[in-house]
Amino acid sequence: MLDVLKIIEDHAEDVLDLPAVPHTYIRIIECNDEEEFDVNAHLQCTCQQPFESTKVAKYTIAEYKIIAQGEDTKTVYDVMLSTNSTFDYQYSPGDTIGILTKNDDEDVASVIEQLSLEEICSRIYRVEIDPATKKKAAKVPSYIPPIVQIRKLLTECLDLRAIPKKLFIRALIEYTTGETDKRFLSILCNKSGCTFDDVILKPGFSFVKLLRHLPSCKPPLELLIEHLPRLMPRPYSIANYHSDSEHSRRIRILFSLLDCKPGLTTSFLKNSCGTNESIYLYFRKSSCFAFTDDVLANDIVLIGVGTSIAPYLGFLEKRKQAIERCRNLETTAWLLAGFRYEQLSYLCREEIEQYLKSKVLTNLSVAFSRDRTTRHRYVQDHLEANKELITKSLIDSNCKLYVCGDGKRMIPQIETKIIEILSNVLSISNEESKTIVADLKKNLRYVEDIWF
Question: Residue 259 phi/psi, 5° resolution?
């Protein structure tokens, strides 16, 4: 809990050195260009997207089901997105889409109320450079359309949960009337000291949370456009594959919902289930993680936990279609997956076991981290139990290893385990094992899909 008065008291004797006030450069003017404004489309759907391979298209949720739920278990949704748009784009399993997200309604309402925008939040405005600005090379951010509605601008373009920078905090002082609020902001943006790091940066204290602690701070909307970063699209792995005309028109994704701290996009997707809400998305450029036609000639080892098994469902669907076309496909596919509980959170179990039964998947190793009676709690335990086979696959064959998961914990843990296994089985040093892994990565035989 942020205690503003305590922070002010702790720094009562401090002599503060504040940065210069940043130049303003944006102005918004009410206009009558309603005919140019599509109230339904996402405001960012026409601008360039990160890693885009296609333009943005409109989808809706055609089907959905909850595939995991319960105490101490993340709620997981299995969703099929569908579009009537026709465009010729061939993705590969392992590819991702970017979903244009929206801010939380409560956050938007909070900002509108504090900035006293209630009466004008549905009006249409033009965003442009203020001709009186002293800022050099000023330009409107590329993700801000020239014609906007204020509520949609706050909902779809600006990241209200971004961590405010010191210069933004310095600018806020100019629009704050209360002496307590001013002093607090001044302490935060002081050039020396570590208050900003301790209060804002390290705990990830967002702009919208900060604003709620500053009742007398009422910045103009223009200042938010100048200082808040873009509300970025969120990437999701494609969990299906089509080789026919349905390619790109039906996209399956899995997502999990944290009840205590739900994400913006997962909340938006959850609330869109069972509705005709438009989902705006685009296909992102392929990476080396893609499962392309030429990789069908390789044995593959697939490692993932929780919803990070999603891309592998597309891998296996592609293998199934290849086997149906060519019965003599002799390569192997080994899935090592991890979940919390076998009964509550084993995602897509019937689907995976059907692939195993039909020989699309040739080996399956599943770990359950919170089942007390399980033999293997983590994927690393299966790697250890099969260390000779893993080593042989990586050293003596054309096997390709895929790892998908959290870049802070899971991905490094798997790499550490692989290095340890190589060292033990081959009787070589840890450094030599690291060199082997580095070479495998360089030659695209050990590829990672890293999520944060």
Answer: -65, -35
- Give Cβ neighbours of residue 307 (< 8 Å, ≥ 6 apart): 76, 254, 255, 256, 347
3-state secondary structure of 11: coil
Any alpha helices (H) in 287-426, and if so which ranges?
A: 310-325, 342-345, 349-357, 379-385, 387-396, 410-426
Cβ distance 221 to 29 under 8 Å?
Answer: no
pLDDT confidence of residue 396: 84
Q: Any idea what the Cα angle at residue 25 is, between residues 22 and 129, rounded to 5°?
A: 165
pLDDT in tens, 128-140: 999 999 999 999 9
What the block records as the tokens of 46 is 């026409």
Measured from the Cβ of residue 287, the count of other Cβ atoms closer than 10 Å reads: 14
Q: Which residues of 376-412 are buried (b: 16+ CB within 10 A; e: fewer)?
A: bbbbbbbbeebbeebbebbeeeebbbbbbbeeeebbe
Contact 213, 29 (CB under 8 A): no
Report the pLDDT averaged over residues 302-306: 97
Average pLDDT, the chain: 94
Ordered by where they begin, the domains of the chain are 1-285 (1.20.990.10), 293-451 (3.40.50.80)
**What span, in angstroms and rounded, lies between the C-alpha atoms of 319 and 330?**
11
* Polymer length in residues for the chain: 452
Q: Structure pTM? A: 0.94
Q: Which of 403, 391, 414, 407 is nearest to 450 (CA)?
A: 407
Q: What are the CB-based long-range contacts (under 8 Å, 24+) for 348-351? A: 348/67, 348/78, 348/254, 348/309, 348/313, 351/313
Residue 62: its pLDDT value, please?
A: 96
Q: Which of 348, 342, 344, 318 is nearest to 331 (CA)?
A: 318
pLDDT value of residue 359:
93
Beta bridge mates, 451:
406
Helix (H, G, I), strand (E, B) or coil at 404: strand
- First vs last C-alpha separation in the chain: 26
Note whether 97 and 61 are within 8 A (CB): no
